[in-house]
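Posting this for the archive.
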Amino acid sequence: MKINICNDFSETPGARYRYEGDFSGEEFRETQLAPKYNEAHRKREKLIIELDGGYGYPTSFLEEAFGGLVREYDYDPKEVNETLEFISNDEPSLEAEIRGYILRAKDKKNG
């Protein structure tokens, strides 16, 4: 199972929340990431997230999409990190950044 953010969502990801404009992290999480994550988790498959091809990612977009997956749906950060696989030849450091948002999301919810 795979999501190519550039092809399936937008080449120009936006801000954190829908009210801040088009292609927000919140919109991506709700319309793309959460449904595919639920399906992959249920089937015990990996969900591959292809990050290449766009014009960059605002940190607020990434944190809301991936950290929000933990906060908003009360998912276990370890399970989320085990289910998601990231591909980025353009910016390989994005994987560590996103995985950090996932791990720290539970702390933000509780604190």
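The beta strands are 2-4, 47-50, 84-87. The mean pLDDT is 95.
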